[in-house]
Design a protein that fits this description.
Helices cover about 30% and strands about 35% of the residues. It is of the alpha+beta class. The protein has a single domain (about 5-180), classed as Aminopeptidase. The chain has an 8-stranded mixed beta sheet with strand order 1-2-3-4-5-6-8-7, with helices on both faces. It is globular.
């Protein structure tokens, strides 16, 4: 499947490319970002280079770079993965580079990706996990219409301790209701 480019008011979502590897490396090496997303895997630079080279052709997922209108710089990524055409569902994931969090880019990226999920792919449901320690992300998802569906207790590491994963979902009719002006 050809990966789309999506245009928003502030941002453009485009397929991730090999030349994004430096910025992706910065993102996966960021301690705060790793903590807030529950990332425990350790990546090598050659693995990141190979991933950036190949991800645009991966099946069953759409990985897009978040860029600002007028610039092609990778600011973060938004991913729709585990796409199940039969059930009509997918998982959503967002990660922004350290200097670009809290500027509204993630909100717009999610809105664009949800439009693709429901209008472009015809999905019925989009779900995600957010860590209980990431109150800002949880609030963002709630403001976009996601509802809490459950909790995975002590499912993620938080340094030497643990934190819960909060399961959230958005159904197509809920998305459509939120689009009415």
């Amino acid at each position: 499947m050809e990966k789309p480019t999506l245009q928003g008011e502030m941002i453009v979502l485009r397929p991730i490319r090999a030349d994004d590897a430096d910025a992706v490396w910065e993102s996966v090496s960021d301690p705060d970002g790793r903590r807030l997303t529950g990332t425990t895997a350790v990546f090598t630079r050659p693995e990141i280079d190979a991933w950036c080279e190949a991800i645009a052709s991966a099946e069953g997922r759409i990985d897009l770079a978040v860029t600002v209108n007028g610039s092609d710089e990778y600011l973060g990524e938004i991913v729709l993965n585990d796409i199940d055409d039969v059930v009509g569902s997918a998982n959503l994931r967002l990660a922004m580079r350290p200097g670009y969090r809290g500027r509204g880019y993630g909100t717009e990226a999610i809105q664009l990706m949800l439009g693709l999920a429901f209008d472009g792919l015809g999905l019925h449901r989009v779900e995600l996990d957010v860590l209980s320690i990431n109150a800002r992300a949880k609030s963002l998802y709630e403001n976009l219409g996601f509802r809490i569906e459950g909790r995975k207790r002590d499912a993620y590491r938080d340094g030497e301790g643990w934190c819960d994963g909060i399961l959230m979902g958005l159904l197509e009719d809920e998305f459509r209701a939120s689009q009415i002006p």
